[in-house]
Amino acid sequence: MAFTFAAFCYMLALVLCAALIFFAIWHIIAFDELRTDFKNPIDQCNPVHALVLPEYSIHSLFCVMFLCAQEWLTLGLNVPLLFYHFWRYFHCPADGPELAYDPLVVMNADTLSYCQKEAWCKLAFYLLSFFYYLYCMISALVSS
Amino acid sequence: MSQPGTPGAPAGLQAHNGAASASGAPYSNGPVPSAMMSSHIAVNQGYNSQLPGSYPHLLPAKTLNPASGQSSYHASQGSGQAFHRPPVASHPVGPSLHSGPVPQMLPPASQSPAAGPRLPGGFPPGSSPLPPVNWQHSPPSLAPQASHCPPAPSQPTVLGNTHLSAHHQYVPSGDPSLQNSCATSGSALPLRNPPLPTTFQPGAPPGPPPAGGPPLVRALAPQKASLRAAPQPSFNAAVNQEGITSNTNNGSMMVHSSYDAIEGGGFLATPQLATKNPQMSQGVGYAYPSLPPGYQNTTPPSSATGMPSSSLNYPSGPQAFPQTSLGANHLTASMSGLSLHPEGLRVVNLLQERKILPATPLQPPAPNLHEDIQKLNCNPELFRCTLTSIPQTQALLNKAKLPLGLLLHPFKDLVQLPVVTSSTIVRCRSCRTYINPFVSFLDQRRWKCNLCYRVNDVPEEFMYNPLTRVYGEPHRRPEVQNATIEFMAPSEYMLRPPQPPVYLFVFDVSHNAVETGYLNSVCQSLLDNLDLLPGNTRTKIGFITFDSTIHFYSLQEGLSQPQMLIISDIDDIFIPMPENLLVNLNESKELVQSLLKTLPQMFTKSLETQSALGPALQAAFKLMSPTGGRMSVFQTQLPTLGVGALKPREEPNQRTSAKEIHLTPSTDFYKKLALDCSGQQVAVDLFLLSGQYSDLASLGCISRYSAGSVYYYPSYHHQHNPVQVQKLQKELQRYLTRKIGFEAVMRIRCTKGLSIHTFHGNFFVRSTDLLSLPNVNPDAGYAVQMSVGESLTDTQLVSFQSALLYTSSKGERRIRVHTLCLPVVSTLNEVFLGADVQAISGLLANMAVDRSITASLSDARDALVNAVIDSLSAYRSSVLSNQQPGLMVPFSLRLFPLFVLALLKQKSFQTGTNARLDERIFAMCQVKNQPLVYLMLTTHPSLYRVDNLSDEGALNINDRTIPQPPVLQLSVENLSRDGAFLMDAGSVLMLWIGKNCAQNFLTQVLGVQNYASIPQTMTELPDLDTPESARTIAFISWLREQRPFFPILYIIRDESPMKANFLQNMVEDRTESALSYYEFLLHIQQQVNK
């Protein structure tokens, strides 16, 4: 039983993952509010934008940490989402991530349902990875 | 939610209000729930309390009719207030004309069972039910209840936040509401105490007055039955809403109502009314030639079995509309509507029929509705659906492979528009639908909403019909007799006092701009039309010019001449003085005029070539944001300085490759600024007069998302291009004088089960069914894609309602409501029979523009072609029983391949080197923003031979004889060298003179001696005193009168530069890069028969 760097990574990831789960839930609520007509897309998209960059950077931080800790399996699980985030970031409308959720097109039924699905999928992913990190953290602490 | 008086809104709502008001003040036009409203009104007590006083002329009405709810009625002396709908009127006359798709005509017994099993077989798994480029949006997992009955704050017509701070600025200009009331009463005064009202609706079916008892009783029973049959969940939902929406409609006993049947204020309205009807009746004459008997072989069996099934299909159709006066002959009338329509049912083999274009302009198909309902339905020019028979389920819609959508022209100039002034506007309590002709009255006191099926109470005030002065006739009220109606909105529909009309002009005065000389024409036009600008005493006007710096003009009263203020710090824009930059037009008219006179000369020596458009727009936005209004921007080059600077992206050599073109904006600056503008009710209209590439793709965003419009004059020059100068003048004339609506929102509601998928047009989508339109103009069209969410099996009719809330230039808040009612069908064949090919092509064009922006142009072109192939192969595999060779299409879609081919050859989607990028993008803007009629004319122009016009079959309008030459197909084979041909392409008319044109025509019409002496650029016909000249001019001016703008006539001879444009429109011919019509058909046949 020793406190390794890997165990530290998992502990940190656990905490940050909780934040990511919160972000995902926040997204879901935001898009649901849009759909049910409670809010103006401009009002809604601005705070959503504020969350986009923190989310992406936190997730990238995970990946860097797991890379340093040489946790290849965990890294492999996270890489697809990392690439998706990169893709999303660089395929935004012209001026960068500020319009990742473009209030001009977000009301389109297809876009809105896509955004909602994306948020649900991320929520599921973060939840699963939360428990996975928990397990890994314990096993890292116990095994070494 | 509803009326502002609502004292107690649920706590949940208030929480929302708090959230909405706390977040972002600048974008404050979110749907504002009631609690906020009520608080606002409480604050603005003074404003609210003036309401009774603001309609002083109503008071005498009390004495007029004490027993009847204190209402007064003002009838205009015009020709009756009936909203005239020519197409509708023509339907009863010729039921066999438009081949109203008659689902009952199907061979139900024989075909339906057979077709049922075969349908799945029609799409074997291998045949890719989802083609690579697929127009049928996948059935979305929309939560239908969410988008349809937004439980709480569906206050659709309220805009803007409570700009309490903004309130004070209206004070200096006099109390607005007081002024409004003056204006209102002023306009209504001449109409006071009218002679006894005439029959309100000439078109109303003659029937016993419903107070007479029997019809109502009859109507009542079936309604109750159908109510029981209504789906339980929906009813429950409606009941649940009640807790929220109770307490509305209080105090309706004390309200006064008055009906002013005045014109909607469009002084530019053209006398379309007079011209349409004869045209229509002429259509009856020879719209469709007699058909070869061979094509009828599929119909006779259906006619044999059609009748019984029809009565089964629409068991409750008649009962659903008791207010349309059920007579004893009702059933027979509904049966007569089902008479055989052989034309509409026949199947056309496109490869064999060469002449498919009707000789008269194509009319929209009539929905297969009972004629009483159809008579009340909305004019298809205003509101049109791609499928006049709505498929029951999304699966059926997917199978048909046709797009479902609406095409709207909501703010069209109307000759006659019933206007209702009433302090309570009757609306459904749960979905906020306005009462319309298609609701059903359960009894005298209750009506059932046709969109959400909730049963509502009829307010006491609504019981009295001021037109007939009879109590207890709610179904005779104008709201229930007109599918298009305008309400004068009471103060609940305002969140701030109605804004004054504000016009700001932003001129580019760089060297390049001065060189084109546009300032002369624009200033002259403005000077000429200054008095015609729509507005009232509060109208404000301002000017900004810019090159590398920004110039403001102080027009303070008392100054001897305008004072120019130059801001050179374009990185941090500020407004140099708080007042006097936007001034009251009436008070400072002399200054404005002197500015307009001197402006063109002020910059003639300018050597500044840079253009700081972005900062200028920011400055203009800052100037206008307290009030909102219209910003007209004139730009002549690529913006090069400050924020929003752009780089040239077009490479002329790469025009051919469809991949490498830049259709997407290169910066988000204009988009974001447009959003800000939209939030502050500012619309930006862009006039681009540029010789070189100006990146319209980026610049156009400023207009697109702020609900403005784009005008483009390529290679504008005052000397070298006189044609463009004339075009600019004419379009400016229209632009400056047309009607305008400020701070508008438009909501589109539809029957539960349908949902809105995508909007097309210039606006900002603020919610799933709400468009924010800072300005609305009568030349803008909109399109909406729909999807079928829930199954519509338990309903026979669906309705769509668009409600446009706007502030008129007179400072009145008005709501214009259009309602369209359509039948629901359950078989594929009926869906095909009811297809409206023009609307489908229009919607496809809109979708293709989106596709070319998000994907690529070639994708969009493929998608267009696939739309034809998919729908026709669906028809072939699922509907046609015997597989004949050839390309079999339903009669309703016979022009579909032609129109799609025309779209492929249109400037937006064509391939080849001849389209400049800006022109292509402008064409795309036009596709999105034009009403369907003009879109179809630009896509597929009408061609007429005009050198042998005769009075045969001519129209006779107001003692003018207007010849009606047949429409020719757009193929060079129809041209001949010894004739003259007129092409009507919507915004332009082209008269092509053949080389050997008859001498008679040259001398008698053109007034020239011989062909060689026709001038190179000739844009007007001389007014000669010959019958030929009179006929030609009558025909051309008749074409012009039909549209609100002024199409320029180009006279083209062989060497003219315009000849290429003329020939380009010959869509049936082969060009270097595009197929001919026949080749296109062969291609489609090949794909369909695969």
From TrEMBL, chain A:
<dbReference type="InterPro" id="IPR033466">
    <property type="entry name" value="Cornichon_conserved"/>
</dbReference>
<keyword id="KW-0472">Membrane</keyword>
<keyword id="KW-1133">Transmembrane helix</keyword>
<feature type="transmembrane region" description="Helical">
    <location>
        <begin position="58"/>
        <end position="84"/>
    </location>
</feature>
<dbReference type="GO" id="GO:0016192">
    <property type="term" value="P:vesicle-mediated transport"/>
</dbReference>
<feature type="transmembrane region" description="Helical">
    <location>
        <begin position="7"/>
        <end position="29"/>
    </location>
</feature>
<dbReference type="Pfam" id="PF03311">
    <property type="entry name" value="Cornichon"/>
</dbReference>
<dbReference type="GO" id="GO:0016020">
    <property type="term" value="C:membrane"/>
</dbReference>
<keyword id="KW-0812">Transmembrane</keyword>
<comment type="similarity">
    <text>Belongs to the cornichon family.</text>
</comment>
<feature type="transmembrane region" description="Helical">
    <location>
        <begin position="123"/>
        <end position="142"/>
    </location>
</feature>
<dbReference type="InterPro" id="IPR003377">
    <property type="entry name" value="Cornichon"/>
</dbReference>
<protein>
    <submittedName>
        <fullName>Protein cornichon homolog 3 isoform X5</fullName>
    </submittedName>
</protein>
From TrEMBL, chain B:
<feature type="compositionally biased region" description="Pro residues">
    <location>
        <begin position="122"/>
        <end position="132"/>
    </location>
</feature>
<feature type="region of interest" description="Disordered">
    <location>
        <begin position="58"/>
        <end position="217"/>
    </location>
</feature>
<keyword id="KW-0963">Cytoplasm</keyword>
<protein>
    <submittedName>
        <fullName>Protein transport protein Sec24A isoform X1</fullName>
    </submittedName>
</protein>
<dbReference type="Pfam" id="PF04815">
    <property type="entry name" value="Sec23_helical"/>
</dbReference>
<feature type="compositionally biased region" description="Polar residues">
    <location>
        <begin position="155"/>
        <end position="164"/>
    </location>
</feature>
<feature type="compositionally biased region" description="Pro residues">
    <location>
        <begin position="192"/>
        <end position="213"/>
    </location>
</feature>
<dbReference type="GO" id="GO:0008270">
    <property type="term" value="F:zinc ion binding"/>
</dbReference>
<keyword id="KW-0931">ER-Golgi transport</keyword>
<dbReference type="GO" id="GO:0090110">
    <property type="term" value="P:COPII-coated vesicle cargo loading"/>
</dbReference>
<dbReference type="GO" id="GO:0030127">
    <property type="term" value="C:COPII vesicle coat"/>
</dbReference>
<dbReference type="InterPro" id="IPR036175">
    <property type="entry name" value="Sec23/24_helical_dom_sf"/>
</dbReference>
<keyword id="KW-0256">Endoplasmic reticulum</keyword>
<keyword id="KW-0479">Metal-binding</keyword>
<dbReference type="InterPro" id="IPR050550">
    <property type="entry name" value="SEC23_SEC24_subfamily"/>
</dbReference>
<dbReference type="InterPro" id="IPR006895">
    <property type="entry name" value="Znf_Sec23_Sec24"/>
</dbReference>
<dbReference type="Pfam" id="PF04810">
    <property type="entry name" value="zf-Sec23_Sec24"/>
</dbReference>
<feature type="domain" description="Sec23/Sec24 beta-sandwich">
    <location>
        <begin position="741"/>
        <end position="825"/>
    </location>
</feature>
<feature type="compositionally biased region" description="Polar residues">
    <location>
        <begin position="65"/>
        <end position="80"/>
    </location>
</feature>
<dbReference type="InterPro" id="IPR041742">
    <property type="entry name" value="Sec24-like_trunk_dom"/>
</dbReference>
<feature type="domain" description="Sec23/Sec24 helical">
    <location>
        <begin position="836"/>
        <end position="936"/>
    </location>
</feature>
<dbReference type="InterPro" id="IPR006900">
    <property type="entry name" value="Sec23/24_helical_dom"/>
</dbReference>
